[in-house]
Amino acid sequence: MVNGLKFDMRLYVLLAGLNPMRIFLYNDGLARFATVPYEQPSRKNLDNLMMHLTNYSINKHSKDFVFNETADDMNIGHKRSIRCVFEVGFLRL
User: Where are the domains of the chain?
Assistant: First the structure.
């Protein structure tokens, strides 16, 4: 979790060969955040998809969803560049 929100990361890789194995990792990707702070699943919140799922197609309908208006805003909102997530310091390797 980041800031109490469930999230997923999408990394882009190119498998360029198997023998020898050559893998290239693109230097950016995508992080998608739920719009409701996460709580452990219970009977009371199990139907709250915006808490438990990070799908953009679901969360974009939330009244709390924050859109990124420009490429300069990739460090805010519920759909962010992975590069910005790491640069802002939410995640550290």
Answer: 7-88
Q: Token digits for 22?
A: 């050559």
Maximum Cα–Cα distance across the chain: 51
Residues 6+ apart with CB under 8 A from 67: 60, 77, 79
Query: Which structure tokens are listed for 72?
Result: 């300069």
Average pLDDT for consecutive 10-residue bins of the chain (93 residues)?
86 95 91 90 90 88 84 73 73 43
Q: What is the pLDDT of residue 57?
A: 87
CB atoms within 10 A of CB 34: 26
